[in-house]
Amino acid sequence: MLYSHLFGKTKKEVKKYDSISHQLLTQAGFIDQIAAGIYNLLPLGKRVLAKIENIIREEMNKIGAQELEMPLLHPKTFWETTDRWQTVDVLFKTKSQYGQEYALAPTHEETITPLVKKFLKSYRDLPLALYHITKKFRDEPRPKSGILRGREFGMKDLYSFHQDKNGLKNFYQTVIKAYLKIFKRCGFNNVKITEASGGSFTKKYSHEFNVITPAGEVNLIYCQKCSFAQNIEISQLDPKKNQCPKCRSNLKIDKAIEIGNIFDLGTRFSQAFNLIFIDKNGEKKFPVMGCYGIGTTRIIGAIVEISHDDRGIIWPKNIAPYQAHLIGLDLKDKDVKNNCDKIYNQLLKDEVEVLFDDREEATAGEKFADADLIGIPVRLVVSKKTGKKIEYKKRGEKETKLLALKDIINQIKN
RNA sequence: CGGAGCGUAGUUCAGAUGGCUAGAACGCAGCGUUUGGGACGCUGAGGUCGUGGGUUCAAGUCCCACCGCUCCGACCA
Fold first, then answer.
1. Would you say the ipTM is above 0.90?
2. Element (H or E) spanning A85, and its range?
3. Are A230 and A194 in contact (CB under 8 A)?
4. Which of A172, A235, A327, A370 has a CA-to-CA distance to A220 between 20 and 30 Å?
């Protein structure tokens, strides 16, 4: 991609937001706000989202979940069936011109359950796991922190159906493992699996996946040594009085961003929709359900919160919008310009995702500042100085190296 | 939904006590000089001052209502 053609350039000056991710994503040209909690994802932001979605997709497919897509416009009756038309206060409601009422989907139990009802017959059809990656609408009383808490946002949600509690229990663990892989691949090194309340979904257990950062809004009580963590809402523990119930180490309280949440739904929704199957003994049964969400757009914000410096964003390799940021200096010199074009084309040929700052009019300082702000993991500089080699630098590190193109491509691909 | 702050050029902002023919910087366009950390000179385009009402000889400025944004709180399937 030529930077000169990129839609959504960096901005020199942007309003000061308290939220770092809001500020940096806006300034670097990843997002654009249209109202409180509602954002355009610009081409750079969309690329990051697509990478996150692909990682999720791969890991979901690996555990046998099948991707589908459900509507976001839900007829009222579906939500009346579960009594959630009145009780879910974040439900966006809308009407057709003929007076029919709809909900804008905040979650999809109300559509997945009747859908499965159309196909589920026998225990042979179970277990079943279906997911989709789409938008969600929630009428939040107070959207905040940019893309971290919106009224319209991206989410992957997975729903599973099992013959019994044990089936769910096993799959629940499988999903936990898959989630940890996903978050690791997205660049989170320390995700806390947190015991939490089931909210209006279920009276049973639920687990959140939390990333510790002051920008978060979940209060977490967790062990400094082992993996123990609880949402403070449900915790009876006090770090001053209590030690970790698992390993007896000291406890700590910190803020965290919830990037995923999983629930044991039991048979609440299968009963509501009278979703049944015939078991081995010929008896009718309600399948036990689980649901599992990941906030895809929230991940973008959460990564920026934990991975940036005073110059800009530092994207983890796997979700960076591009793999390399090529900067051409001295571009009015024809030899340098030709050399740059050659390198750019070779990178493309070798399937390196590259953003090429081809602006003749911009100064070196501007280009470096933009590269730091945008935060692509590898910066390549070609100028009069670099001759036949290319200057290679990782974002977040100071060291630069002069390397041949081949070596650079190898570095990027590994 | 309670509390606080804010809304003026594409962007970030300045415009005490009403006098504005509305400014700056950055960005943008043109010309020229520059070119390894947001460089410089000259020229130029760009605004129904969030919307509606009111007070006044006169409103960006004062009053009322509404809309919108940010932050704190409540809320957070």
1. yes
2. helix A84-87
3. yes
4. A172
* pTM (whole model) above 0.95: yes
Can you give the distance from the CA of residue A253 to the C1' of nucleotide B53 in angstroms? Answer: 52
Residue that terminates a domain, selected from A257, A280, A309: A309
Are A41 and A106 members of one domain? yes
- Ordered DSSP codes for A37-52: TEEEEPHHHHHHHHHH
The CATH number of residue A368's host domain is 3.40.50.800
Smallest CA–C1' separation from A157: which nucleotide? B77
Q: Which residue is nearest to nucleotide B39 (CA to C1')?
A: A363
In a domain, A4, yes or no: no
Convert the pLDDT of each residue in A35-74 to its tens digit: 999 999 999 999 999 999 999 999 999 999 999 999 999 9
Task: Select from A108, A126, A110 the least CA-distant residue to A162.
Answer: A126
Domain extent for A370: 322-413
Residues A101, A24 share a domain: yes
Q: With respect to residue A282, please indicate whether it lies within any of the assigned structural domains.
A: yes
A294 plus A334 within the same structural domain:
no
Nucleotide showing the shortest C1' distance to residue A393 CA: B36
Which residue, of A309, A330, A347, is where some domain finishes?
A: A309
Please state, in angstroms and rounded to a whole number, the distance separating the CA atoms of residues A110 and A78. Answer: 6
Nearest amino-acid residue to B37, taking CA and C1': A365
